[in-house]
Specification:
Helices cover about 75% and strands about 5% of the residues. It is mainly alpha-helical. The protein has one domain: Cytochrome c oxidase, subunit III, four-helix bundle (Four Helix Bundle (Hemerythrin (Met), subunit A), Up-down Bundle).
Length: about 220
């Protein structure tokens, strides 16, 4: 009986120590970084709901779903190339993650001019992505006749799901471009010289999240 009581007590103590260790691990995390992580967690739930709803509609609809290789194809020099624009958009966004990572590295080295320049390059990549997405939307609406409430290519739910999910992501990218530009200009001006450049990392967290979400959208919407 005594041994059982000791074991139970040590088990409870072990559980308490686990929780305490988490507190100690995150004790020095800044308020700004913590709030960004909380925001990204809430955004993860929203995008997850959208993608799960998309999969549910896709698997339960009785009408044929449009073939993404045909819908998102471009004709270049007389050649019908499937998903070429989407591939370029994905490459641009993944490349922007690389430039953002380099900006964070330069920020912690206090190389503010390099950090600001790399953040502006990242913002340019994001702006290019949004521009290509606008072209993609224009092609679907004008040439294919796809609408959020209808779709001549097949299942009516396709238009609603596509414009909602890609539009919500595009909105995040647009906000990210503005966010990156503002922070980059403030870094270049030396506003964070006394406080340090953790703000560059916090901005990078948001941008990497946007890039990661696109990987899932690309896989579910364009490759499925």
């Amino acid at each position: 009986m005594q041994n059982s009581a000791v074991s139970a007590k040590s088990g409870v103590n072990g559980l308490v120590q686990d929780w305490i260790s988490d507190k100690d691990a995150f004790k020095n995390v800044s308020w700004g970084k913590t709030m960004m992580w909380i925001f990204l967690l809430s955004d993860t739930f929203i995008f997850s709901c959208f993608l799960v709803a998309y999969m549910s509609v896709r698997m339960t609809t009785a009408e044929p779903w449009p073939n993404s290789s045909e819908v998102f194809a471009l004709t270049i020099a007389g050649e019908h190339i499937p998903l070429i624009l989407i591939a370029i958009m994905t490459f641009v966004l993944i490349t922007s993650s690389g430039t953002m990572a380099m900006a964070v590295n330069c920020g912690y080295r206090r190389q503010r001019k390099k950090a600001a320049a790399l953040m502006l390059v990242t913002a340019f990549f994001g702006l290019s992505f949004v521009g290509m997405q606008a072209f993609e939307w224009t092609k679907l609406i004008v040439e294919e006749g796809v609408r959020p409430w209808g779709n001549p290519l097949g299942a009516a739910q396709f238009g609603a799901a596509f414009f909602m999910i890609t539009g919500f992501h595009g909105f995040h990218v647009s906000i990210g471009v503005v966010y990156l530009t503002v922070v980059a200009l403030k870094v270049l001006r030396g506003d964070y010289e006394d406080r340090g450049y953790e703000i560059v990392e916090i901005t990078g967290l948001y941008w990497h999240f946007v890039d990661l979400v696109w990987v899932f959208i690309f896989a579910f919407f364009y490759l499925w």
